[in-house]
């Protein structure tokens, strides 16, 4: 199996490993039968919307103006993110890279992290390991989904 | 630090004597053994010398020794060769019995013949120890059975099949059939992993066909042997010239063959190594199980060759363990999904009823006659923290 330097670096020294005890959202993806399981924990923060970031995100994705994570003054963002993964080197490396890509991003930006983004950042995975990047991208989506569901529920109360 | 090589079931390091023997043939006996002139005949006498050494090793006649391009070719020649020759005279479709734990060289060949409509096939399931019960072979025999092909030592687990016992069953059945003028059953064993460590006497094993290869016994790659008992009808798979008693065309790889013969000569001088390797393997297994929780030995602990151990580490993944060991200069292997390039867990462990979540964390340690106690101690020292680190990264508690 030929892995890029980046993959091996993230495998041997994974970033953001661990759990967030009072996480705002948790994503659980994969299953033991196929060999890879990933849990993603996120802590969501609110920050004042800087002029610059507002313009940037509206240029990139105009629909985020209607986002539930964005008001005129504030945006929600990934304040902290951790992961736990049982799996091969690619599963661990893509988990690690995904957390690096997501950390500090607005929720809307983090939502749009794709498998290709993770793949590119790692310098392309071997073909048969491509599914690992799908798993990692799913992991962050699921964690955000979980956060949104919880938020809706508590708003409904 | 020197590299520690514990992947001898994948391939072994060619010994110095083997390399010297091969170089010598390439320099001094490089002729074509089929040529009539002296240069050719020099090569031919090297070839014959090697054939006699193999014949002596297997306790057979030199005419029963075919040199091939390796273990997979020998397996293919045995299985396809029997299937295609009996197709011509047997009544109905020939039936082949094999097992779910075979090497892919056997398994995929039988599967392909079956899918192509050439044969009927039965795939015997092993018991949970990985062993094929002799009785299950007896029960699977049919009127149109032409071949039973079962491996001697499993390449993933080191588990040994009772080949001699199965050989007896087939012999008994053949005696009954002889009087009724019925289809004879031929018995093939893939002995690739057994060659260095187990009894290779084809008479006591009761086999008609036997495969082994040079590179699992410190000989060269690209050279294999198929033993074919006199009177066993096999159809050549490589056609052309009349080499190898008209059963395998192509100019012989004389240097490789001489290397293989040299490897056998060295084996004979190494007969005490069996116990040494076995006790090193046992120490490795005992210490791992003692120092690492949830480490499970896969396969029989009595019916096994001395050089292989297969251990599952629950809640850690095979490839991740391999790469961490490799980082420290230790080479091991895994039958698990991620290293074998397919995503399914090992077919051998699956056949033994081991669930995927355990199969994914399996590691194969395979020793050689060159493995030292210091090397085993080093593995025992570095492995526990690796497993611990991976388990801490896992979402599951162990």
Written description of the protein model:
The complex is a heterodimer of chains A (157) and B (398). With 157 residues, chain A is an alpha+beta fold. Chain A has a single domain (5-148), classed as Sufe protein. Chain: A (Alpha-Beta Complex). Helix content of chain A is 45%, strand content 21%. A three-stranded antiparallel sheet of chain A has the order 1-2-3. The radius of gyration of chain A is 16 Å and the shape is globular. Chain B is of the alpha/beta class. Chain B folds into two domains: 16-268, 3-Layer(aba) Sandwich (Aspartate Aminotransferase, domain 2); 272-393, Aspartate Aminotransferase, domain 1. In chain B, α7 links the parallel β6 and β7 (209-213). In chain B, α2 packs parallel to α9, α5 runs parallel beside α6 and α11 (318-327) crosses α14. The two termini of chain B are 32 Å apart. The model of chain B has no long low-confidence stretch (mean pLDDT 94). At the A-B interface, α1, β2, β3 and α3 of A face α11 and α14 of B.
What characteristics describe this protein?
heterodimer, A: 157 residues, alpha+beta, Sufe protein. Chain: A, 3-stranded antiparallel β-sheet, 45% helix, B: alpha/beta, 2 domains, 7-stranded mixed β-sheet, globular
Write the layout of secondary structure elements.
The complex is a heterodimer of chains A (157) and B (398).
Chain A lengths: L4 H8 L12 E7 L4 E13 L2 H10 L13 E13 L2 H14 L4 H5 L3 H7 L8 H27 L1
Antiparallel strand pairs in A: 1-2, 2-3
Helix pairs in contact in A: 1-3, 3-6, 5-6
Chain B lengths: L3 E2 L10 H13 L9 H21 L6 E4 L2 H19 L5 E5 L4 H12 L4 E5 L9 H7 L4 E5 L13 H17 L6 E5 L11 H4 L3 E5 L10 E5 L14 H4 L7 H15 L4 H19 L3 E3 L10 E6 L4 H10 L2 E2 L15 H5 L4 H4 L2 E5 L6 H21 L5
Parallel strand pairs in B: 1-11, 3-4, 3-5, 5-6, 6-7
Antiparallel strand pairs in B: 2-8, 7-8, 9-10, 10-12
Helix pairs in contact in B: 1-9, 2-9, 3-4, 5-6, 10-14, 11-14
């Amino acid at each position: 199996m030929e892995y890029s330097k980046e993959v091996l670096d993230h495998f041997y020294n994974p970033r953001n490993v661990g759990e967030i005890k009072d996480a705002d959202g948790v994503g659980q993806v994969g299953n033991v039968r196929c060999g890879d399981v990933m849990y993603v924990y996120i802590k969501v923060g609110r920050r004042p919307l800087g002029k610059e970031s507002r313009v940037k995100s509206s240029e990139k994705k105009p629909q985020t103006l209607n986002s539930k994570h964005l008001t005129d003054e504030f945006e929600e963002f990934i304040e902290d993110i951790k992961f736990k993964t049982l799996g091969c080197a690619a599963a661990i490396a893509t988990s690690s890279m995904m957390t690096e890509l997501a950390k500090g991003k607005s929720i809307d930006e983090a939502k749009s992290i794709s498998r290709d983004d993770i793949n590119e950042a790692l310098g392309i995975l071997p073909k048969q390991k491509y599914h690992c990047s799908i798993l990692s991208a799913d992991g962050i989506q699921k964690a955000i989904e979980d956060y949104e569901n919880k938020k809706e529920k508590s708003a409904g109360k | 630090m020197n590299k520690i090589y514990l992947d001898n079931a994948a391939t072994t390091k060619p010994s110095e004597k083997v390399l010297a023997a091969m170089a010598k043939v390439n320099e001094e006996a490089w002729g074509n053994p089929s040529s009539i002139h002296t240069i050719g005949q020099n090569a031919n006498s090297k070839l014959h010398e090697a054939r006699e050494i193999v014949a002596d090793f297997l306790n057979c006649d030199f005419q029963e020794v075919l040199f091939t391009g390796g273990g997979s070719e020998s397996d293919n020649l045995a299985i396809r060769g029997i299937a295609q020759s009996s197709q011509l005279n047997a009544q109905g479709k020939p039936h082949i019995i094999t097992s779910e734990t075979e090497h892919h060289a056997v398994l995929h060949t039988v599967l392909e013949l079956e899918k192509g409509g050439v044969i009927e096939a039965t795939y015997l399931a092993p018991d949970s120890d990985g062993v094929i019960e002799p009785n299950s072979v007896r029960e699977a025999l049919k009127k149109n059975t032409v071949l039973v092909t079962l491996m001697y030592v499993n390449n993933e687990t080191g588990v040994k099949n009772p080949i001699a016992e199965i050989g007896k069953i087939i012999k008994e059945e053949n005696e009954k059939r002889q009087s009724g003028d019925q289809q004879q059953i031929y018995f093939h064993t893939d002995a690739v992993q057994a060659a260095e460590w187990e009894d290779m006497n084809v008479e006591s094993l009761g086999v008609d066909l036997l495969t082994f290869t040079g590179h699992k016994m410190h000989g060269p790659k690209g050279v294999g042997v198929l033993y074919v008992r006199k009177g066993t009808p096999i159809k050549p798979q490589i056609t052309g010239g009349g080499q190898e008693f008209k059963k395998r065309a192509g100019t012989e790889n004389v240097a490789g063959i001489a290397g293989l013969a040299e490897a056998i000569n060295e084996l004979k001088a190494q007969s005490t190594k069996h116990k040494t390797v076995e006790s090193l393997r046992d120490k490795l297994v005992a210490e791992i199980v003692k120092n690492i929780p949830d480490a499970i030995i896969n396969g029989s602990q009595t019916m096994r060759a001395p050089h292989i151990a297969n251990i599952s580490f629950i809640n850690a993944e095979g490839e991740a363990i391999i790469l961490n060991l490799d980082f420290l200069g230790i080479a091991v292997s895994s039958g698990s999904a991620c290293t074998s390039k397919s995503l399914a867990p090992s077919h051998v462990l699956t056949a033994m009823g081991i669930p995927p979540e355990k199969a994914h964390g399996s590691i194969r340690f395979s020793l050689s006659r060159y493995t030292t106690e210091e090397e085993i101690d080093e593995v025992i020292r570095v492995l526990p923290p690796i497993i611990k680190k991976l388990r801490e990264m896992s979402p599951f508690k162990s």
